[in-house]
Amino acid sequence: MTSAPLPRILRRRGEPEYPTFLELFFDLIYIFMFSRLAASLAEHLTVRGAAQTAVLLLAAWWVWVLTAWLTDLFNPRLPIIQATVLLVMLGTLLMAIATPYAFGRYGWLFVAAYFGIHLVRDAVLIPGTRVNRPIQARSIRVFFWFGVTVTPWVAGVFVDETARLVVWSLAVAVDLGSARAGWPTPGLGRTELASQIFTGVHLSERHRAIFIVALGELILSTGTGLAGSGFTAGAVATAAVAFVSAVLLFQLYFQRVQRILAPPSVAVERVRPGTSTSYSHLVMVAGVVLVSTSTSIIIDRPSGHDPVELMVATLGGPILFLLGSVLFDAVVTGRILWSRVLAIVVLCALMAPATLLLPPLTGLVLANLVLLITLVGEGLAARGRPVGATAPAR
């Protein structure tokens, strides 16, 4: 018996593994997306506002993840795949435009763009893989689960803000959770989580690129805020501290990535660690977006009494970043990065007194100090240890 032929659109082993220029171009739309999310949260810095922003970020992130997987599994140099990426980019732009009003009058636009993206992608992948049923089944499973969640997404458009938050939270949880379960589908089973389907080097590069994009949005919002501040002393100081925040986050991320993914053979290729890596980067990116949110507010009012919500955001951003990096490290190495766990504990311990006693800018400085100590401590601990000594889990 002869095996089924491979679909023409599939990426072949041995092809270039680094992202194409089109993929990097696609990521640019996320500068706008992250900016809209941060600005929206800054205007509604409440528990409800944070929950709404989290739901929208999860949906936007899921679009990015599936697009990264699309260009990882299928040949991004084929015109049909490139056209698909560009259409997804257009849909993501519409989602970003609707983001500040998604829980108001433009909820329909956000949902229409979200599902339009998935319809376009699956309209290409399902017919394009028909020559190989096992490979086609992967796309059908994903499409089936979007069919499951379309009802709560659409229903949310027609209910009030509170009910919309509830049903959309459920929908996005199912979207992301179904992937962790391998998209179990009647008649097709599920995608085995141990399947080695990803091109590890490519996917790792894609995650690094989107983290850089998040840092780019932080720098953009800082510069925009300073430009409109009249260059007061407090605003200039806040912008300088925010720039240092971006540098520290950059160094903490890439210093660790360089150590644990240094050997060229090290790559996350299986489904379970592939999804876990994407989710851990989601937490890190959420932390950067939260830092951007707090920075944009502090530039406007760097001194005076600090609202509780603002201090939680100021320290919560670095906490989320550190938590995401701990999760990422656990996925790749199978071990806990205790230095960052300690940094999280310190930031949490600082939150209560900082909320009561410190002006906003001081809270930002304290967060940077904890990040700096963590960075220096890890650098000193790594001296004398061979690069790539940590054994990654594949």
Provide a brief overview of the structure:
This protein is mainly alpha-helical and 394 residues long. The chain is 74% helix and 0% strand. It is globular.
Descriptive notes:
With 394 residues, this protein is mainly α. It is 74% helix and 0% strand. It has 13 helices and no strands. It has helices at residues 21-27, 29-43, 47-73, 79-98, 107-128, 133-157, 161-180, 200-227, 233-260, 271-300, 308-333, 338-357, 360-382. Helix 2 crosses helix 8 (200-227), helix 3 (47-73) packs parallel to helix 5 (107-128) and helix 6 (133-157) packs antiparallel against helix 7 (161-180). The chain starts with 20 loop residues before the first helix and ends in a 12-residue tail after the last helix. Residues 262-269 have low confidence and may be disordered.
- Strand residues, percent: under 5%
**Radius of gyration from CA coordinates:** 21 Å
Helical stretch tally: 13
Round the mean pLDDT to the nearest integer and report it.
86
Helix and strand content put the structural class at mainly alpha
Low-confidence stretches: 262-269
Strand/helix succession: HHHHHHHHHHHHH
List how many beta strands DSSP finds. 0
Percentage of residues assigned to helices: over 70%
